[in-house]
Design a protein that fits this description.
Blueprint (H helix, E strand, L loop, with lengths): L2 H26 L2 H4 L3 H12 L19 H6 L5 H9 L12 H13 L3
Helix pairs in contact: 3-6, 5-6
């Protein structure tokens, strides 16, 4: 066997091994690792949203012109995924918060928890 063939076989074997290890790591990574963090969403809601929306039951100021998070979560077509995508786009009545995908997911998960 030539040195070139040996090197090629070794390279292919290493790539195959790296691929298998990657697959194993993904298979054993818990879903919670990728899940949205509603607690972080609560922090974001209090920082970015509470001036226009009622973001929790403990909030005492009622805002008439914006829906509460509970009412958003109660809508029949509500899904956290759909809301997260909505939050990523600028809206005429909302400030451009420039949320990351993770922050939008976290905020949507928090709003989903408001469903009663």
């Amino acid at each position: 066997m030539t040195a070139l063939m040996s090197s090629t076989i070794k390279s292919q074997t290493m790539r195959s091994l790296a691929y298998c290890v990657t697959l194993l790591l993904l298979a054993f990574t818990s879903e919670a690792t990728f899940a949205a963090d509603a607690d972080h969403g609560s922090i974001l809601a209090k920082r970015w949203c509470a001036s226009c929306h009622v973001v929790s039951t403990s909030q005492s100021v009622v805002i008439d012109h914006s829906p509460s998070f509970a009412s958003i979560a109660q809508k029949g077509d509500f899904t956290a995924e759909k809301l997260a995508f909505f939050l990523l786009e600028p809206h005429p009545k909302m400030p451009n918060m420039s949320l990351s995908r993770k922050e939008a997911d976290d905020l949507a998960a928090y709003i989903a928890e408001q469903r009663q």
